[in-house]
Amino acid sequence: MSRVAGWVVLVLALVVSYRPAEAAQAKKAQAQKAQVQQTQVAVLRPEGRQADALRRVLTQELGKKGRGREVLPAKKVDAEVKRIRGGPKTDAQRQALAKKLGADVLIVASVKGTKRWDVEVRAYSGKDGTLLAEERWDVRTNRAFPDVRRELEPKLGAALNEGSEQRLPPAAVTPPTPVSEPEVAPPAPIAEAPRPAAVKPQPSKPTAKKEEPPVKSEPKAASLRDLDGPILEAVLSGQALFRRFNFTGNNADTLPDYNLNSAAAASLSVVYFPLSHFTDGMVHNLGIVARGSRAIGLSTRLPNGDTYGTTAQLLEGGLRFRLPLRWMEVSVGALYGTHTFAVDLPPESTFALPDVDYRFAHVELGLRKALTERWAIAARVGYQHVMSAGELSSDDYLPELSGFGLDGELAVEFALTRMLGLRLGGEMRRYAFTADAAQGAPVFADGAKDLYFSGQLGVFLRL
User: 192-244: per-residue pLDDT in tens?
Assistant: First the structure.
């Protein structure tokens, strides 16, 4: 009897000693289960001008505390979306994206319209990429989206819960649940010490390790990048050209002026960002710019009635760096250019009108702001450091010449499609020169002013 009583006391002591450990393991299992059951939601960047504002509202509402959801970081989501050419459009693409992100639900949204905004929000299952729910709102233009914020959870909450339920079966097979099986072994420790068999928990560890390699293999995927702004911009325009040239200072009243009231011209401007093919870093915003214009069928009639052919053209080329900001695009440029205006006068002509051939270094600042999905406004200002002026800086006119130029452009754009649109605007250039002659020295004139203005109507292409 004493031996039996000893065995009973031993068993009771073992049972009592295992209860705290069992309670601790049960608490840990419950915490892990609660963490696993947290719904992982990926909010993709919406389409439309107000994409950032709408994404912020969706992230805040879906990730509120107490709703059992966790919204994945936007940078992580965007990085994976960039690897999919054109974005996830099919169920298979959405399924693959959700697998890489570890997401249970994908949220795809868009905001369109001008006077009122048409907001569309779709929830897709991360398990198979199929549509769980879709909702639309016709709201006033308010970046806080109060209607969407108020009705998002009532309308899409059930669909998001459904997405998390679809994820639960695979979660039940994960290593944390099998860990509780070895706990059944302690009630029978009487003489079978080998029975706990530490070999049983070990298979769960290799299974967890086998899931790690897919995570490492994700960075190997590579595809086209989603860049900020187009790679190629081209504008072809027809122009109406005007010019006013006159001398200033001494003898200016006796010297002729030149007034061009109207002339037809054509212009072409091209900006290309070649580094966009190789990188999506800041350097991909460095581009090559070239533009030019030339008058068509231009001639000049002198006071005696004679008419002579006239050449008017502008050529510029250099580098441009664009900086896409949240509300507008800012660009800076450094160019070299020539601006020519020449009348084919015969050698025996006594008409005192010099041909000009300005050679200058040009720096400029540009702005472009999208007003709506179709309308945009663009502006540019620049400064030209004139290094030579052709015949105007010769010994016959202003040999000791120094001067500068200013230019400005303002245009309105209307998009016909995603790539094509119309552009209407105007451009002005003004050159001012002085003759740096010694005081009292005879001069042809003290200086000169040359003003150009052109109205433009053209077509733009963005790729």
Answer: 445 544 444 455 444 444 444 444 443 333 333 334 678 999 999 999 999 99
Q: What are the two backbone dihedrals, phi and then psi, of residue 225, each rounded to the nearest 5 degrees?
A: -100, 155
Q: Domain 36-172+212-220, what architecture?
A: 3-Layer(aba) Sandwich (3.40)
Task: Give tens-digit pLDDT for 390-422.
Answer: 998 888 888 888 999 999 999 999 999 989 999
What are the φ and ψ backbone dihedral angles of 104, each rounded to 5 degrees? Answer: -90, -30
* Superfamily of 232-462 according to CATH: OMPT-like (2.40.128.90)
Tokens 């070299």 -> residue: 336
* Domains of the chain, residue spans: 36-172+212-220, 232-462
Q: How long a stretch of residues is the chain?
A: 463
